[in-house]
Amino acid sequence: MRTIAIIGASLAGLRSAQALRQQGFDGRLVVVGDEVHLPYDRPPLSKDFLLGKVEAVPLADQEDLDALDAEWRLGVRATGLLSTGEVSLSDDSTIEADGIVIATGGLPRTIPGTHVLRTLDDAVKLREAFGTAQHVGVIGAGFIGAEIASSARALGKDVTVVEALPTPLTRVLGAEMGAACGHLHGDHGSTLITGINVDSVNVDGGINLADGRQVNADVVVAGIGTRPATDWLAGGPVRLDNGVLCDAGGVTNVKNVVAVGDVANCAGHRAEHWTSATEQAQVATRNLLAGETVATHTNGGYVWSDQYGVRIQFIGRATRDVRVEDGSIEDRKFVATYRDDENPEDVVGIIAMSNARLFTRLRRNLK
């Protein structure tokens, strides 16, 4: 291959560029990103960035970027995959490439009248809005919503979190562990309302609930998940279904096109995790250079979240059989294991609150 185009300049795109160079690709490398910023780390945006403790955290220093010898096309969107080797861009130019890495990530689901937090520009706007707000409403008690609520509370704001499910994070952690995470809001003075949908958000920021109640809020943030950024691929040669369809090695139905990160539906699973993006990049680029699937990626599902001074770590999958192995839920410091439904001796998932050492030791034996 002489030219490889990476569409997406965030974590998955950068790690793909680095992996290609590490694996010996010395041809032309073009990285396209719709943001004007060089790759930065997203997790701090909902935490230390909102708190004003840090500014944008680069994912690589200038020396490392220079070593990639890549062409950076920033502030430009991909608008279509015209063929198996040609990408059209929003500035009316095209890129012809022998190989393509799709790393366009996800787009936040939105509610009119709310802020979202996905990009650095989103975070700048939200931090400015927090400066004058007294009451903050957060729609969605998943990881991103809980982190935003935690940051707002640390800034001294009155915080109300609205969650449609009866228990936060049930789909990820199960009801018992989701409830344990939900208790963190009350522990630190935030109000958590569960089991109710949002009807609308007022222009002035108040939240109207489906049961007629109203939540006072100067600023409202929607943390209700993302959808894969695949609009630009519609009608093209690559198959789509809840992301870019690919095998366990990130290879699509077009052998010279691979997908990595939040946008990739690998073997029926789309993982929106920092670690997954990094690990997938290594595997998918290897397969791209090989011209076939010679390696696969097994999703470990590792995710972490910092909320109200507590670090939550999770890996694997949640089941109904969950057992506290150390500590106590009431103390918000524990490690619990999820057991396989058919073989209870097999540990298939682990969750920890503020117990990183034991979590790390137990995850080595994860099935």
What tags apply to this protein structure?
single chain; 367 residues; alpha/beta; FAD/NAD(P)-binding domain; 5-stranded parallel β-sheet
Structure description:
The chain has 367 residues and is an alpha/beta fold. The protein folds into three domains: 3-107 and 226-290, FAD/NAD(P)-binding domain; 120-222, 3-Layer(bba) Sandwich (FAD/NAD(P)-binding domain); 317-364, no CATH class. It is 23% helix and 30% strand. The strands form seven sheets. Strands 3-2-1-7-18 form a five-stranded parallel beta sheet, with helices on one face. Strands 20-21-24-23-22 form a five-stranded antiparallel beta sheet. Helix 1 crosses helix 7 (274-290). The protein starts with a strand and ends with a helix. One of its GO terms (cellular component) is cytoplasm. InterPro entries: FAD-oxidoreductase/Apoptosis, FAD/NAD-bd_sf, FAD/NAD-binding_dom, FAD/NAD-linked_Rdtase_dimer_sf, Reductase_C.
Q: How many strand elements?
A: 24
Instruction: Write down the CATH class of the largest domain.
Output: Alpha Beta
Query: Whole-number average pLDDT?
Result: 95
- Spell out the CATH superfamily of the largest domain: FAD/NAD(P)-binding domain
Structural class: alpha/beta
Number of domains: 3
Overview in brief:
This is 3-phenylpropionate/trans-cinnamate dioxygenase ferredoxin reductase subunit. The chain is an alpha/beta fold.
